[in-house]
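Lecture 7 notes: from sequence to structure.

We start with a single chain of 561 residues. Read the sequence below before looking at the structure.
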Amino acid sequence: MIWKNNNIPENIVAEKADAWKTSKILTRLLLNKNLVEKKDVERFINPCLEQLRNPFDFERMEEAVEKIIKLREKKQRIYIYGDYDVDGITAASFLVLVMREIGIDTRYYIPSRMEENYGLDKKTIDFINERDGKMVITVDTGANSIEDIRYAQSLGIEVIVTDHHKSTKEKSDEEYILINPKLSENYKFKYLSGAGVALKLAQGIYRKLKISEERLYKYLDIVMIGTVADVVPMIDENRVIISKGLQVLKETKVKGLVYLIRYLKFQNKNINTTDVSYFISPLINSLGRIGVSKIGADFFIEEDDFKIYNIIEEMKKTNKIRRKLEKKIYDEAIEILEKEERKKDMPYIFLTSKNWHPGVIGVVSSRLSIKFGVPVILVAIKNGVGKASCRSNNGVNIFNIFKKMEGKLVRFGGHDLAAGFIAETGMLKEIEEEFAEEIEKLKTTREEKILEVDLELSIDEINEEILEDIKLLSPYGLENQQPLFMDRGVYIKNIEKFGVEDRHFNGIIEKNKKEYPFIAFNLSNEIEHKNIKEKFDIVYYPEKVNIKGKDRYSIKIKGIK
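Now the structure, written as tokens:
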């Protein structure tokens, strides 16, 4: 791992600190994020709802909103069709709640990952038609094909597709209302999550009806959870959604979240994006991956205490199953790779099995991609069909690769670095061969990870002012990473390893007779052969934690030498 220092001349830092009225440390951190104008700095450190873009910048948003309002006036029923992951579940739940809030007869349909296809299909359209649905709005997903949309239209069902995956426009897209930032010429922010696009549609409805958007934003915590889970860039509108959504979560109006926060013992905690990613999202996601997907939406919408309690119990149960399955699949994949030595030197990993659960291979793909530093495709095979989850890195856009081999796939979708496809097993060999050719063209190499260090700061200098400065830069995520500091000559002691394969460790870190608790994820191998009595150099991130009712400074180690 390479440590790279960001060195900005001190005179520039001093000049900007004076102009911005910020501390030198905060100024340096802002400059490292390429913020150089005062107005950009102010927008960044003070995200507010007024920064959200105009929903009517989307082509055909006006038309979509008018059709929805017309059905509201006629008291006709609308169905929200969501995907079965956290982003899709939250997008659907949010739209149901905010549309019911203003008197629209709204119901929802979340498909089963194991039993149904990805995307709106004829079977679901028949289900909606039989229940007198006059419109279907998809969120975080599209339809299987234009034929399915035409079929709905032939039954008198309006179709509005809100999505954020598809990045190539087709001629048939003109036949229905499509709201997708990646395909919009006028909407300038391209990286909304599925829940984020649902928010824009809701904004359009409320603005057209001249209804206070405060009634809308009281559910912003739901949109925030979907946005965090989808790992979109933490900039522009996403930054506003997440920062304001975290504030709403503190006084959430969603009864399911009240109970879940209580179960996680987060009542007195300042919940951040890490808590959402590692504790809240996995519980919701487990229902879509292992259990009954629709229950995930029920969780956000249900008001009955007993039903909510049962949903959370189901979450806990399915999450335990998910963890066991993930470990089993990960161990099997590692075993295969160890047996086939050639795999370790390949610029990608492509593995298949009839024993794997398709609902959990995505997480394992991600872990393998991080471990080996290459794109990974895992395929779960059942009844002659392979369902694949794929994760990438090093700038390899796997979505574009699958687009090129569209003819070999039954279906595909996803993002640049996280995608999936369904294919007949007889096609898997050809798919791997074409994937290998595309990777070879890109000349993918296992690049050594680079840690961008913002500045050197001794851990014994950490104080409240520095932590408050750092807090202004949050929430953190893709394209807005936590600021990292470097310190030299620290001691570590009381080391305890934990996690799968003892990959993580924690203990006490000491510098100039000051001690702090620390935690280091995925770094156990870095201390394996070192003398613990020696001094270490570290790259770290400081934070405040509550230990046994007392606030303490804590250190997250990101690199150690």
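The longest helix spans residues 305-339. Keep this in mind for problem set 3.
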